[in-house]
Design a protein that fits this description.
The structure holds 2 protein chains of 2 kinds. Chain A is mainly alpha-helical. Chain A is built from 13 helices and 4 strands. In chain A, a hairpin with a 2-residue loop joins strand 1 and strand 2. In chain A, helix 7 runs antiparallel to helix 11. The longest helix of chain B is centred in the N-terminal third of the chain and has 40 residues. In chain B, strand 9 and strand 10 form a beta hairpin. The C terminus of chain B is likely disordered. The chains are: A mainly alpha, B mainly alpha. Chains A and B meet through helix 2, helix 3, helix 4 and helix 12 of A and helix 2, helix 3 and helix 14 of B.
């Protein structure tokens, strides 16, 4: 494959989707843990931790998502036609869940404290949103969308009875909880908060097993549903192997209960290699078989303009994000609650 | 079929945008007001203004949350409800949409930092500097997204070949002829509305609890900003009318019920149409439309008759236009009157009727914003991309869109109610006076106590 603006475009988008996967998982999982901790009477242990990290960054998380789909439609306008038409209902459900979650987070945190209804909505949507968003990934495998006379329809029956769809939803849910618990364990260790650390370490260890099982199940069903994609992924066996290797390191560090920062980096690498093995294996299709990276790309002038703006934007964003990290993530005094 | 998926698609989008524009306007305007108040506070070393900036920010965050989620909704809905529009126009307008997200990103990052670093810097100007990227980011978002709307009104930067946009010039499309006047009008009116909102809140508190120093300072500051921006909005409106007369004459003609092309055209205010499309009971300002459109009382203004019937905007936009202009001038008059009373020593600018009028200015200002957008959007009908794509070609074909309208209606009612409820609680339980006392107390303690513990400074 030649290195052109559309390849660059899809690579950039894929990196952003990965970024969203990590930051959103932390956020979605935190909502669930906050609610679960309230139910089990452990909320005094972790709520302060969660809100101290999330309050300054929740809006940034949302932007990652908007960035991805605005970029996708920008680089590949055909995606708007197919995904837009097919996803009207699931997409609208996702909008509603995101709306409830985002605004109720702000209502709870900046407005009225300690409202159990707000917390429930915040926690429940944290699990429903990844489930509804992962539907788009399932659709991209093909077989669920059909087009007749230019009218695109989504086959709901095929979707809801597909084991692939359910295994991907399962993978989304378990990874959300695994990623989130690992991050919060790391954050608790930075805050020297032993009880919170023990709790989150327990959650992280617990969710590691279902995550890896769901991952293997998804790959298994993928081989039945879209053998081309599966074969492509098998050609990237070393990336998948790397992912398993990082997973084992994470598990070992969590089990031993030390180097939580390293454990979280390992987890990010684990998901990075698996995510890219999946993504590269998907090439050249964006939506099998309707949209390919080359066929669906925007005009060259626009593609180049987008790439230029993207680089300029990164020059603006990277220092800004670094400042956020320095102030809220790696400032020990802030994390410990002294500032 | 009258009520079809196209109509429901329009209703869903109209609903989301009408709701979003309230919070978008607040989102653009309040950061500037916060920046002004914090700056004045640091300059004058006056706690009142600093507290004002803090309290406005606290309320602002709640409304930002609703603005962010409805903004996400409209961004997604563009593709979900108008898939064919995005497929065609995406090639030309992806750039400003993409840049809008960057601007939003930039603003989101610094808003988070601003909120959580009130006491972390020793130099107060460092914290104040954080408002600069927030104000800029908000204004840039408004600029980029308005340029997309400008493109839909005044498309350019491409060649149409076999139903596809070819030879695309992204920058030409973004800086289309409609963009400058639209952006000017959107920004000026947003700042005007923000100032009206905060002035109205101060006036309300004076009416309820009497004239405290805090409320008086807030009122005066915001009335000044209101005067400036309602004046600029009037100029921006004039610029926009001149743009329409030249480039989109059917929109202006529909707004003015100007049916026949003629020289020295009258401006028509209010009135109604009878069954024969004759104007009844309206106020005619002789030759004023020509002057408004071309700064020349005898200039020729294009009439609606030069456009095919199926390309004429609905005539109802006349009322939207009149009401929008009325609101603009009412706010200008209100702020001018306030300063006249202030300067005229014998009169009291804080008399109850004046305060009530200022409070009434809040819904009025938001109504003006809504009416202005209704006029801009309904006046563009029947086009999605004026001259290139009609609305019915762009909409989704899914019948589910009807149910979604009601689901979103319910969502916005819920969000709107919750937002008001939370904001009321936030400020009612914690009045400014109590906070001021608290600040004074901690200051005294700090002076009395041993001051050795190091606080602040960039960590």
């Amino acid at each position: 494959m030649s290195w052109s603006y559309e390849i660059l475009g899809i690579s950039v988008l894929w990196i952003f989707l990965y970024g969203y996967l990590i930051v959103a998982s932390i956020d979605f999982g935190a909502g669930f843990f906050a609610f679960y901790a309230r139910l089990t009477g452990n909320d005094h242990l972790i709520n302060r931790l969660i809100s101290r990290y999330l309050s300054p960054v929740w809006e940034i998380t949302n932007v990652f998502f908007v960035f991805f789909f605005v970029g996708l439609i920008g680089f590949f306008p055909d995606a708007a036609h197919y995904y837009g038409s097919a996803l009207l209902v699931p997409g609208s459900i996702a909008i509603i869940l995101l709306a409830i979650r985002g605004s109720f987070y702000a209502f709870e945190n900046y407005g009225s404290k300690k409202n159990i209804v707000f917390l429930f909505l915040y926690g429940a949507t944290g699990l429903l949103i990844p489930a509804s968003l992962s539907v788009a990934l399932v659709l991209s495998e093909g077989g669920f969308i059909s087009e007749t006379n230019g009218i695109v329809t989504l086959d709901y029956l095929a979707l809801f009875t597909s084991p692939l769809a359910w295994s991907i939803v399962g993978l989304a849910l378990t990874s959300v909880l695994f990623i989130s618990a690992s991050f919060l364990a790391f954050y608790a260790s930075r805050a020297d908060d032993q009880p919170a650390l023990e709790l989150m370490r327990g959650y992280a260890l617990f969710w590691s097993t279902p995550t890896i099982i769901a991952a293997f199940t998804s790959v298994l069903y993928l081989s039945q549903h879209n053998n081309r994609h599966f074969q492509n992924m098998m050609d990237l066996w070393w990336l998948l192997g790397l992912s398993v290797f990082f997973f084992l390191i994470v598990l070992w560090l969590l089990f031993k209960g030390r180097r939580y920062g390293l454990a979280f980096i390992g987890l990010m690498l684990q998901f990075l290699s698996a995510f890219f093995a999946y993504g590269i294996g998907h090439y050249p299709y964006i939506l099998d078989p309707y949209i390919t990276v080359q066929g669906g790309a925007t005009q060259e002038a626009m593609g180049i303009a987008l790439v230029v703006v993207f680089i300029a934007g990164l020059l603006l964003l990277i220092p800004s994000l670094a400042l956020v990290f320095r102030l809220f993530l790696f400032d020990a005094d802030y994390v410990k609650g002294k500032k | 079929m009258v009520v079809d998926t196209v109509l429901w698609s329009r209703l869903v989008t109209g609903l989301t945008l009408s709701f979003h524009v309230i919070f978008a306007t607040i989102g653009v305007a309040i950061p500037l007001m916060v920046a002004i108040a914090e700056f004045v506070g640091i300059r004058k070393k006056d706690n009142h203004y600093t507290l004002m900036a803090k309290r406005w920010t606290r309320g602002f965050v709640i409304s930002v949350a609703v603005g962010v989620v409805t903004g996400t909704a409209i961004a997604l809905q563009l593709a979900l409800v108008w898939p064919n529009f995005m497929q065609l126009a995406g090639n030309v307008i992806a750039l400003p949409l993409f840049m809008e997200v960057f601007a939003f990103f930039f603003e989101a990052i610094f808003l988070g930092i601003y909120l959580y670093t009130w006491d972390r810097f020793r130099n107060p100007y460092l914290h104040w500097l954080l408002t600069v990227p927030i104000v800029l980011g908000a204004a840039m978002s408004a600029f980029f997204i308005t340029s997309v709307n400008g493109f839909m009104n005044q498309p350019g930067g491409f060649v149409l070949q076999a139903g596809q946009f070819m030879a695309v010039h992204p920058l030409q499309a973004m800086f289309n002829e409609a963009t400058p006047s639209k952006v000017f009008h959107v920004l000026a009116s947003a700042y005007m509305t923000g100032a009206a909102l905060l002035a109205g809140i101060a006036a309300f508190s004076i009416l309820k609890k009497g004239a405290t120093d805090y409320a008086k300072k807030g009122l005066k500051l915001m009335m000044g900003v209101l005067l400036l921006f309602s004046f600029l909005t009037a100029i921006a409106g004039d610029t926009s009318a001149k743009f329409l007369a030249q480039h989109q004459p059917e929109k202006l003609a529909a707004a003015e019920w100007h049916f026949k092309t003629e020289q020295g055209a009258d401006l028509i205010f209010l009135g109604w149409l009878n069954a024969e499309r004759e104007i009844m009971g309206a106020l005619h300002l002789p030759k004023a439309l020509s002057f408004l459109a071309f700064s020349d009382f005898n200039a020729e203004v294009t009439g609606l008759d030069e456009f095919p019937v199926d390309e004429q905007p609905p005539l109802l936009v006349h009322y939207l236009f009149d009401a929008m202009v009325g609101v603009g001038f009412a706010l200008l008059a209100l702020s001018a009157l306030f300063f006249l009373l202030l300067l005229w020593k014998k009169r009291n600018e804080l008399n109850r009727w004046m305060l009530r009028a200022i409070v009434f200015g809040v819904p009025l200002a938001f109504l003006g914003v809504e009416l202005g957008w209704f006029y801009a959007e309904v006046g563009r009908q029947p086009w999605m991309i004026r001259g290139y794509m009609r609305v019915e070609e762009a909409a989704t074909t899914s019948p589910s869109i009807m149910i979604l309208f009601f689901v979103f209606l319910l969502l916005y009612i819920l969000l709107g109610t919750m937002c008001v409820f939370v904001l009321r609680r936030l400020f009612r339980d914690n009045p400014a006076e109590v906070e001021l006392e608290k600040i004074a107390k901690t200051k005294q303690q700090a002076l009395a106590g041993d001051n050795s513990s190091e606080e602040g400074g960039l960590a």
